[in-house]
Amino acid sequence: MAIESAEHLRNICIIAHVDHGKTTLVDHLLRQGGTFRDNQEVAERVMDSMDLERERGITIMAKNTAVKYGDKKINIVDTPGHADFGGEVERIMGMVNGAILLVDGAEGPLPQTRFVLQKALQQNLRIILVINKVDRPECEGGERIREVLNQTFDLFVDLGASDEQADFPIIYACARQGWCTTDLDEIPALINGTKKGSLKPMFDTILKTVEPPKVDLEAPFRMLISNLSYNDFVGQLGIGRVFSGTVRKNQPTVRRGVNDADQPLDENFVATKIYTYDGLKQVEVDELQAGDIGLVAGCPNYQIGDTLTANKEVAIIPRVTVEPPTLAMIFSINTSPLSGQEGDAIQSRKLRDRLVKETRMNVALKFEETDQPDQFRVLGRGELQFAVLIEQMRREGSEFMVARPAVLYKTDANGNRLEPVELAVLDLPEVYASDVTRLFQERRGILQKYENQSVASTGGTSRVRLEIEVPTRGLLGMRSKYLTATRGEGLFSSQLLGYKDHRGEIIHRINGALISDRDGETVEYALFSVEERGNLFVGPGVKVYEGMIIGEHAKENDLNVNCCREKKLTNVRAAGAEILVTLRSLRKMSLEQYIEWIEDDEWIEVTPENIRIRKKVLKQNLRSVKRERD
């Protein structure tokens, strides 16, 4: 076999904790790589193409692009930074030979930094450390930057990096302004503008550090599908790296995949179209050679992890494996009285097909049947991952219902119950530390580390970093409570540690629900008397039905209320003026907050226009108002 290096290619991914600047850096790499014209208008975070990504300001799906630098082509994969989308990071590691590890110059390495770095080291990728946001006031003087560098090096050592991996190049960058340097002393001049900077040192470091892919052009064609795309003209597209050989247009090809029962499955097809990346564009080519990353059309049944080969005799590439899920959520068809009035009330078959399609495109999600023919179980990583899937389906026009996430337990060899445990890392003002610690202790959390942040890293304010080991079920509903406790000034991130002994009962929600006892439309007069019993979720003029939850009761039990009662008209003139009926402010909750709030006997009803919560048993005479504990 003629193994050689594809010298003109470099394949890298950009990995980091959420909001450390990955997508902003890719923006400027594309700009300075000549992808856009000088006068071309380009949106910020151009790689965040999904509406949900732009709205939330986070990357959800891993995406490919390519930059030309001189006579070299650099294939770049932008990855998510949120722990719930870790599966996106894991499945693209096999496509690349190197990684840019981005670390915030003020915050330092955080839990997801550890997770993505661990995966990159396991794949023996060459790492380039980029300390970003060095223009922040906390980084002035360079003291905090040196601290972050030492913390990152300690992380490499802690994760068992080899001597070669631990000898990583270091770049200091301001992705927002599009410059970087390898010299710490140059940073002040770049910040104040006396010296003009660019990303040229980063391009040069990539070409010097990341090895070109080793290829065998004479071997039979093999390609691993790591991502999926769709084209209105040619249909489904498989995205991946060619490991050996060459694939040409109209070449007979075999998809080596698995069926629904995970049994091997071979499917013959013709590669009708072949594309490669040029900036953000997919450019049609006649062939795709080993080492390059591209797209192949011609098969409508691609799944992530499939191997495309020239024939059935060629050995397949091991399928992509990711960390197992820790949460499960039931999806059901919409059975409420308002079903079909605001969207497409899909049948169980369509709901099943949509969920199966999602799990094929996202290897971090798993699909399971249930005992009920119209209910299906989806297994995933976290609340945010489920919330994004629900929001996507909602925007497609579907109506359906979802239940409260359930933690996936295990049993050890001695029959003891095990549950997933996570390490929550909290960065917050010191004045709130005692309240936050008590909040987590109520959720069976155990404080592992209490660390005072240096004045340089916090801009002169007194902040602390807490590390708390807490069960995954204790984190359900915790983010909003934590932000409230820290007045919005706290940073929250977590990482799965594994399965440990069950820690006992956790009280999820103390208060009961205010439940409508009839069908109709809410009236302000009726709501005025109801709100004395608790907090309202709905205002006047809202359609309700028996069993729909309209608020949170001030006491532990559930309470059925009449929220449709109108004031009776009489012919008796009142002595004084009518009392003006005004409601207190309503408690508006997002989809994630509803997911955190509901109990096991409740559904979230999702439609394109509204999100409602209801009891699973609608008729009040068939359910108890006394709430059961877990």
What does this structure look like?
With 630 residues, this protein is of the alpha+beta class. It folds into five domains: 3-212, 3-Layer(aba) Sandwich (Rossmann fold); 217-309, Translation factors (Elongation Factor Tu (Ef-tu), domain 3); 327-407, Elongation Factor G (Translational Gtpase), domain 3 (Alpha-Beta Plaits, 2-Layer Sandwich); 410-501, Alpha-Beta Plaits (2-Layer Sandwich); 513-622, OB fold (Dihydrolipoamide Acetyltransferase, E2P) (Beta Barrel), CATH 2.40.50. 22% of the residues lie in helices and 33% in strands. It is built from 16 helices and 38 strands. Strands 20, 21, 22, 23, 24, 25, 31, 33, 35, 36, 37 and 38 form a twelve-stranded mixed beta sheet that branches. The protein has an eight-stranded antiparallel beta sheet with strand order 14-13-19-10-11-18-15-16, with no helix packed on it. A hairpin with a 5-residue loop joins β26 and β27. The longest helix has 16 residues, at 143-158. The radius of gyration is 27 Å and the shape is globular. The chain starts with a strand and ends in a 15-residue tail after the last strand. Mean pLDDT is 82; it is low at 36-50 and 575-579.
